[in-house]
UniProtKB/TrEMBL annotation:
Listed name of the protein: Rhodopsin domain-containing protein
InterPro entries, sorted: Rhodopsin_dom_fungi (IPR049326), SAT4-like (IPR052337)
Organism phylogeny: Eukaryota, Fungi, Dikarya, Ascomycota, Pezizomycotina
Annotated keywords: Membrane, Transmembrane, Transmembrane helix
Organism: Fusarium albosuccineum
Transmembrane spans: 12-33, 45-68, 97-115, 127-153, 159-179
Entry membrane topology: Multi-pass membrane protein
Length: 203
C-alpha cells in the first residue's frame, strides 16, 4: 500500500517533468523571435501562432496535472489511491505526451523555410545549425521511444531513462543556441593564434 506522503511526492514530481519540458521550448521560441527578421511577415505570423500553441499546451498540461482527479487536487493523495492518481493515469500520460510531441515537432519544422532561404558560405555555421536541428530530431525520436515504453512497460526504470534523455537533449539544444557566439569567438581566437600553414616562417 502506497502511503499518502509518497503519492503527494509523486503528484509534485509531475510538474517538474510535464511542465519542465516546456521551458526549453520557450527558449527556442524566444530564439526564433530574435532570428526571424521583420522582412518576413508571414514567418512572424507563424511564429506568433507557434508561441500561442506552445504556451497553451503548457497551460493545459498544468491544469490537467492539477485537476485531473477533481476540482480539489488534494484528493489525489488523500482519497482512494486506486481510483485516481495523476502519477499513474495512463490517459493523462498520453494526453501530456501528445501535447508535448506536437509542440516539439512544430518547434523543429518551423525554421525549415528560413534555413532554405539562408545563404551561408561558412561551413562552420552550417555544421552548427545541422547539429542543433539534428538534436531536435533526436529529441522527437527519444520522445517516441518514451511513449512506446510507457505503452508496454509499467512503472519500469527504463521509462525514467527515456524521460531523462528527452529533457536533457532538449536542454542541450537550447544551450547550443545560446553558446554559438561564445564558440565562434573561441574558434576565432584559436585560428588567430595558430600559425597559418601558408606562412613558411610560421609567423
Amino acid at each position: 500500500m502506497v502511503s499518502s506522503k509518497t503519492v503527494m511526492i509523486r503528484f509534485a514530481t509531475n510538474y517538474f517533468f510535464d511542465l519542465g519540458i516546456y521551458f526549453p521550448k520557450f527558449s527556442i521560441v524566444a530564439f526564433y523571435h530574435n532570428l526571424v527578421p521583420v522582412t518576413h511577415p508571414e514567418m512572424r505570423i507563424l511564429l506568433h501562432a507557434l508561441t500561442g500553441i506552445t504556451v497553451s499546451f503548457a497551460l493545459i498540461t498544468f491544469f490537467c496535472d492539477t485537476f485531473w482527479c477533481g476540482p480539489d487536487p488534494s484528493i489525489d493523495w488523500t482519497g482512494d489511491h486506486e481510483s485516481c492518481t495523476v502519477f499513474t493515469s495512463m490517459l493523462l500520460m498520453r494526453l501530456n505526451w501528445a501535447l508535448n510531441f506536437i509542440s516539439e515537432v512544430l518547434n523543429v519544422i518551423y525554421p525549415i523555410p528560413l534555413l532554405k532561404g539562408l545563404k551561408m558560405h561558412s561551413r562552420r555555421k552550417k555544421i552548427v545549425l545541422t547539429i542543433i536541428f539534428g538534436l531536435g530530431i533526436i529529441t522527437i525520436a527519444v520522445s517516441i521511444g518514451r511513449f512506446v515504453t510507457m505503452l508496454y512497460v509499467s512503472n519500469d526504470i527504463s521509462i525514467y531513462i527515456w524521460a531523462t534523455a528527452e529533457i536533457c537533449i532538449s536542454v542541450i539544444v537550447v544551450a547550443l543556441t545560446a553558446l554559438r557566439p561564445l564558440l565562434r569567438k573561441i574558434i576565432n581566437m584559436i585560428s588567430t593564434t595558430v600559425p597559418s600553414s601558408d606562412d613558411p616562417s610560421g609567423n
